[in-house]
Amino acid sequence: MIDSIMKRLGVSHDLYQNGNYTVRTPIDGSAMGQVSLEGAEAVEERIAKAQQAFEAWRKVPAPRRGELVRLFAQQLRDHKEDLGRLVTWECGKILQEGLGEVQEMIDICDLAVGQSRQLYGLTIASERPGHHMRESWHPLGPIGLITAFNFPVAPWAWNAALALVCGNSLLWKPSEKTPLCALACQALLERAMEEFGDDAPKDLSQVIIGDRDAGERLVDDPRIPLISATGSTRMGREVAPRVAARFGRSILELGGNNAMILAPSADLDMAVRAILFSAVGTAGQRCTTLRRLIVHESIRDEVVDRLKKAYAGIRIGDPMEGYLVGPLIDSQAYEQMQSALERARQQGAKIFGGERHLADTYPDGYYVSPAIVEVEQQDDLVRHETFAPILYVMGYRDFDDALAMNNDVPQGLSSCVFTTDVREAETFVSAVGSDCGIANVNIGPSGAEIGGAFGGEKETGGGRESGSDVWKSYMRRQTNTVNYSRELPLAQGIKFD
Length: 497
Ligand code: NAD
Hints:
Layout: H1 2-9, H2 13-17, E1 21-24, E2 31-35, H3 40-57, H4 62-78, H5 80-91, H6 95-115, E3 123-124, E4 131-139, E5 143-146, H7 154-165, E6 170-173, H8 179-196, E7 205-207, H9 212-220, E8 226-230, H10 233-245, E9 249-253, E10 258-262, H11 268-280, E11 290-296, H12 297-312, H13 331-346, E12 350-352, E13 356-357, E14 367-368, E15 371-374, H14 380-383, E16 390-396, H15 399-407, E17 411-412, E18 414-418, H16 422-428, E19 438-441, E20 453-454, E21 457-458, E22 465-466, E23 475-483
Parallel strand pairs: 5-6, 5-8, 6-7, 8-9, 10-11, 10-18, 11-16, 15-16, 18-19
Antiparallel strand pairs: 1-2, 3-4, 4-23, 12-15, 13-14, 17-21, 20-22
Nicotinamide-adenine-dinucleotide (NAD) binds at residues 146-151, 155, 173, 175-176, 211-212, 215-216, 219, 230-232, 235, 238-239, 253-256, 287, 385, 387, 413, 460.
Subunit structure: Homotetramer.
Family: Belongs to the aldehyde dehydrogenase family.
Protein name: aldehyde dehydrogenase (NAD(+))
């Protein structure tokens, strides 16, 4: 099956079958392909080509650049099913979510096409007669993209679609766990480039198949003015100072530890459904996964009972086959989950679920039942992002305490409140409310739309991707003052003669 999907997506057999690095599906641990990891020399060559491609692409008018992204979106529409299946196969999320990821790529392309006619600058009043000032936005350079396994295609597209219309070339280092998805996206973009014509330079977009060493080479190279890196806080802690040391820019999209405050006035039917999707979806492997439920003591027992009933009915199995929860990415993820649960057990927490499933059917696939862990306080274990389906449940009595708990973690990605009390809702999204990049009311913390800026504060890295005015991150701002008079007045009235 892999051959027929890859063929339809336009990936040449050599690229994914003749290498020395085995790519495995988390579904059953079997090999999907063999890719070649690129070393220092290959990366160096690619950076040089990206620089050349940038020099040509920046001259193409922005609305014309938008046309390339429009054609790419058409390729994605035509191949949504195949690419969605590949996402599911390579990273293990259920097919509905695999397809959703491709839809997100299409959505950001549509946004970027419109944006290509709206790279607006300002005109600014000059204090000098016969002068005008304006602000121009220019292409930035080759953009280095480093991505995580759990969203193998959409975050690349959030960056790529905007970076392309902004006049930049792309160098993508995908996760070593999901290189095939990257090869497929690249093949679809190359098809769009063929249709587009000669003004798209050949090396406008390149994929670097490699591990963290390849990522580090991008991070340290001064020819790459912007590194956009998605992954763990550990990775961001290494990347950020290295990019800063060469005065490069970075967009960091790192770990989250997202909470829901569940108030007594909330619509509990809605809340339970929201908890289920955001705590259990993608087998707890979303950066925006709900990890902490801060529930009012008066409804705590009822909510936990309802959740246990809902969790007991979750269908766990092959993500291609209509189950709700697929596998964890690998054995390491499973061990990290078990070690977090063991620590919780030792601390006296009440644990529901968390066991391995289907080990007989898939000895090399790591399926687990999502866990509910009732704890008395928010300690270091709860403050840490364990990238697995563990939902910590804690009680509160006073809304201000709940808000303080929401914010009392090192990460600051997503958050939400379920309430019908307008004071609580508005406080949550106010300056004294949630300290996260995303704060929702009566919606779970995961499943963002592309129209808003996506990202978070504190150890989540501070970056923003996707909608709003994020396009500005992929351009350099220039202030222009033009003198169309015959005099040379100086600013601030300075006399210099
Ligand atoms: P990871 O940090 O292990 O790897 C992410 C990427 O960084 C990979 O491509 C890897 O090769 C590369 N990398 C690792 N160390 C590097 C280094 N020193 N220099 C350069 N590149 C390096 O993350 P993962 O396990 O693939 O993904 C899961 C993590 O990503 C979770 O913490 C999750 O919350 C986070 N994540 C965040 C977002 C977001 O938007 N905030 C989105 C998805 C995932």
